[in-house]
Amino acid sequence: MNVEKLSHINEQGRARMVDVSGKPVTRRTAVARSRIRMKRETMERIRQGRVSKGDVLAVAQVAGIMAAKKTADLIPMCHPVPLKSADIRFYEEGDEVLVVEAEVKTDNVTGVEMEALTAVSVAALTVYDMCKAIDREMVVSDTCLLSKTGGKSGDFVRREEK
Amino acid sequence: MNVEKLSHINEQGRARMVDVSGKPVTRRTAVARSRIRMKRETMERIRQGRVSKGDVLAVAQVAGIMAAKKTADLIPMCHPVPLKSADIRFYEEGDEVLVVEAEVKTDNVTGVEMEALTAVSVAALTVYDMCKAIDREMVVSDTCLLSKTGGKSGDFVRREEK
Amino acid sequence: MNVEKLSHINEQGRARMVDVSGKPVTRRTAVARSRIRMKRETMERIRQGRVSKGDVLAVAQVAGIMAAKKTADLIPMCHPVPLKSADIRFYEEGDEVLVVEAEVKTDNVTGVEMEALTAVSVAALTVYDMCKAIDREMVVSDTCLLSKTGGKSGDFVRREEK
Amino acid sequence: MNVEKLSHINEQGRARMVDVSGKPVTRRTAVARSRIRMKRETMERIRQGRVSKGDVLAVAQVAGIMAAKKTADLIPMCHPVPLKSADIRFYEEGDEVLVVEAEVKTDNVTGVEMEALTAVSVAALTVYDMCKAIDREMVVSDTCLLSKTGGKSGDFVRREEK
Amino acid sequence: MNVEKLSHINEQGRARMVDVSGKPVTRRTAVARSRIRMKRETMERIRQGRVSKGDVLAVAQVAGIMAAKKTADLIPMCHPVPLKSADIRFYEEGDEVLVVEAEVKTDNVTGVEMEALTAVSVAALTVYDMCKAIDREMVVSDTCLLSKTGGKSGDFVRREEK
Amino acid sequence: MNVEKLSHINEQGRARMVDVSGKPVTRRTAVARSRIRMKRETMERIRQGRVSKGDVLAVAQVAGIMAAKKTADLIPMCHPVPLKSADIRFYEEGDEVLVVEAEVKTDNVTGVEMEALTAVSVAALTVYDMCKAIDREMVVSDTCLLSKTGGKSGDFVRREEK
């Protein structure tokens, strides 16, 4: 075959799903977090169940868990992972910040950081969607990995959390 | 962190994908069934391949098997399961009842009851879709689990079937 | 081209998505219904929010609405429909029957019967999934179209409902 | 029908896809933005194309646009929208902040705010995924709607942007 | 905002879903074709329905039509299109070539060429999958657009077909 | 149960996902290839990054890898496979042929031939989509399996490649 590579376009930056075949299966967990800043009144209405599109947190909870299962369909180079557990919690920090945390587990050759981050991101977007008619200026911030366990790179706890 | 839980909304009824990490992998099977009641003439046309949208059972068969693979994408708290086998059968019960049965297998930490139930439900809906122009009053009934094997809760056979 | 058709296999029963191009857009609505028969105790626990996987009806509600949007991805010959409204209601009929009803609307050239039927079917399957650890013998029955409006075939109300 | 509503569980907080049938179609646009804070070295490697999983921004661009098309599949009460345009831009703000902006357009009865927000969120998560082996502490912040046009509620420009 | 563009990476080759808002809706059709070259014996078994995984053409037909509906989910910069019709035909050309043709229609601002091409490609892959245990060396060739109508660029008929 | 089988329609050609439960997990690899024939000028513009929809190969690369992960959702009787690696390469053969090759790996009971074939097919379709405004007559050909390893049927190398 007389083949000339399109190397200037293709070689250097070529994206791939990296090879993890043969890696050992270990217990993997990850916890991620997002903060949603909103008007005091919006928070109050969520608390009291007075948002006309429905129970904001119940819907966001389901959306986050379902999104965790879609992670490999959303993030191009992410390996598919058979999730073994997914849980989402909501907290208030003062009167204007709603915190969403997701904890995901599996037994797998790759970790579940992206699954936890996807869960909180989609849960936060769902809160936005449910409340946007009353508070278009909500901001989602501080989306990050709080901790993870398992895998070759070992355990990790974000410094602010230690 | 000064955190106050939204417990009245969120804590008690909080939905989650329950933790099955570390559970042993076993052979799992499940058989589910639905009945579709239709006009005698509708059944006759299915039998004879005279439904204008196409071969009803061939399409329903494919739909049911593909739906089994989408179960975790449809049922929010369902764990993703790597199916190892899926088969669908159609039977007649008299002249007005079409029965659809699905048998699903895997080797996994969770069972495949929902996969079998999703397969028969979507196969039945597909029969409805293919025939609705000629019989809008079809009814899908008796969707249930006939049997399952494997897992901690052990084997199960529905009483009517014993 | 010397072409011989595979007519014995392919021609007669060939499935297709029927041609609806050029059909007029009209307001379409559809209402569908399923009944879930369960143990009295299961119903009681749903009512009281004492099912360990979470708030059964909140999750089933979200699952049903999301499934309505996936209808064309589940039912092979179904046209994609841009839904304009989807709502799900739960009722009790006595102590052992939970009823789920879905009402769907659009402005489109095809109807939304399949979307309403898919919504109730997946909502019912979700109820099964949330409760199956405590009541494996639940049965989903009487899934049917209660009414529809719009389109060339006109309005329809199921006789038992008139 | 002797029907008793499960009102304490279901009625008040019942989520629904609100009815937008019959609303007029107008041109809709939305611009959303996220910021990704990372190590200086990570930014440098993205700039130079030295991230081993591939060209970070090219992959994130595709991921964001594909995610915009999946919005109604991710956000439960979101109406499906036929997108007419989707574009994503990346900027640097100093040496440690990568900004992602998405602009989405359609002609529709509902807006595309959620599509723009989903695009930037998934693009940002993809940046995280591509770089997480070298910078696990990246944070995604300031995800918000910058502007929108069209629809009954009229145009909107976020104050900081005016 | 002090913003410096990542122009060397991002600007020139930046992929986008091009803006088609405001374009007029017209009737669109497209016909595409693939050829699958196989062993004479494989063709014979397809004809006779003696392939153990099932009726090859019935399954490929459904797969092709369902894939047409997924086009915008597969092809990154493709606009979502509400299909109004999809049909697939199989022909034999001699004893070793199975031809698959797809015809797709819509009323839309963009065309359906990609939908027709996706339909034949996935139908052909499905034929491969159903028969691969008996004929691993099948080749799919000549996948191309045979004709299209509608849109600003006007009608097109591939020369060999005129 | 008085059951009469719809055997003339259903039994012989009944499609199923064949039972692979209990089969041993082995390392599986597959390499597939497609050729895209185009005008010399089209190739030149791809090389130079002068296609207005964006960087053709970067987008096709991502599309192919994401499609590999969707294989079981596209090919009806295909078992879901947890991919462990996916890589795509582009080559030129002369001035008018662009070659796309995909290499996929897993540790599984079934092989990844369909995943590799799906990856090259969707990557090729994406090249078509990105360039169709300038070259509607492109043809995708020679899509086939080049090699595979693992599984009961053993290793395979396509003859032309030996």
UniProtKB/TrEMBL annotation, chains A, B, C, D, E, F:
Keyword Lyase annotated: yes
GO biological process: Mo-molybdopterin cofactor biosynthetic process
Molybdopterin cofactor biosynthesis C (MoaC) domain residues: 17-151
EC number: 4.6.1.17
InterPro entries attached to this UniProt entry: MoaC (IPR023045), MoaC_bact/euk (IPR047594), MoaC_sf (IPR036522), MoCo_biosynth_MoaA/MoaC (IPR050105), Mopterin_CF_biosynth-C_dom (IPR002820)
Chain positions recorded as substrate binding sites: 77-79, 114-115
Catalytic activity: (8S)-3',8-cyclo-7,8-dihydroguanosine 5'-triphosphate = cyclic pyranopterin phosphate + diphosphate
GO terms, molecular function: cyclic pyranopterin monophosphate synthase activity
Class of this enzyme: lyase
Keyword field: Lyase, Molybdenum cofactor biosynthesis
Pathway of action: Cofactor biosynthesis; molybdopterin biosynthesis
Catalytic residue list: 129
Job of this protein: Catalyzes the conversion of (8S)-3',8-cyclo-7,8-dihydroguanosine 5'-triphosphate to cyclic pyranopterin monophosphate (cPMP).
Subunit structure: Homohexamer; trimer of dimers.
The family this protein is said to belong to: Belongs to the MoaC family.
PANTHER family reported for this sequence: CYCLIC PYRANOPTERIN MONOPHOSPHATE SYNTHASE (PTHR22960:SF29), MOLYBDOPTERIN COFACTOR SYNTHESIS PROTEIN A (PTHR22960)
Protein name as catalogued: Cyclic pyranopterin monophosphate synthase
Source organism (scientific name): Planifilum fimeticola
